[in-house]
Amino acid sequence: MLMKKAGLSLFLLLSSLTEGSAFVSCNASCKGKKAFFASSGPRSSLGESGLEGNRRAPTPNEIAIMDEMITKLANAQPTELPNAVSKAIRVVSSPQFFMRIAQRSDMEQDEEQKEKLSVLASNIARTLEAVVSTTENRLDERSKEVEQVVKAAAEPDTGEFLWPLTPERCEAIQAEMRKLDPGALDESFLLTIDAWMNKSMQDGMDGMVGILQKVLQAYAGTAVSRARDALATQVGAAVTGTSEQEAEAIVSEAQASKAPSSGAIVLEKLLAMDTETWDSEIRNAVSSEEVKLTELKSELQGTMEGVVLGLENGSMMQQVQAEYLRELMTRIEAASD
Fold it and tell me: Pairing with 29, which of 15, 253, 254, 291 sits 20 to 30 Å away (CA)?
């Protein structure tokens, strides 16, 4: 099924998405499975962005994240605020965050701490003005990378977007994502995708929402795979007492001389493929005795603990990757039923 009327060019479609899309929903909360793993059937409709903002009361977990961030920022030096705020701008820029600071201030008995929270709110407000301006510039830059990946979903002969995507187009998205520099896959990259998702839903472009979900999934798989390599290097540096560059050489040499575990091999395959093929790949790997489910679950659990916990708490990067890995764990556990 064509996502839009036949003859709509790739240029016009991408132009409609990039127009006025900068810094949309940066203060929202991740909706979860509905955002990243919706049905890929014809004209599937989400009805709302994967990031839903401040339309509901915060959950206990979200309050805990805000409290942790408030304590962290309250104890930070003024010079450290811009970097800390930019890493968690989705949380810090929300009205709920400032309401939580006010609630904490009202509950505080110590006048010194009460004043500290009041000053914090003012400092964050001023810092946000500068950070938002910088973030908008980064979103403009990241639009080029997102556009590069989205273009891979278009049919090469006609330039039209078909939905559901063919396996070839899904593979093309994965390949294009892996071409991007690791530094490009940052918080601004995800904010840009969310902005495009919002614009797509406003324009009734349900198929493009699905395509952008595929882009998010490809991002998560690529980011997690790269993080696994980086984690191995960091552990190697800690164990050997060498620099990360020296440790990387040591780890590479060790990996070359020692075959990776079956769990690691299969997990890397899953991270590099479209999520629609996960179930069949897991079943085939288990039935062929390429890997045991317990080994695969153990490898994934270690990745979840090492990779997700190392990301900024409350950031989109953490939430997208965590949701992706939780979904993969659900699929693996379902294979044992």
Answer: 15
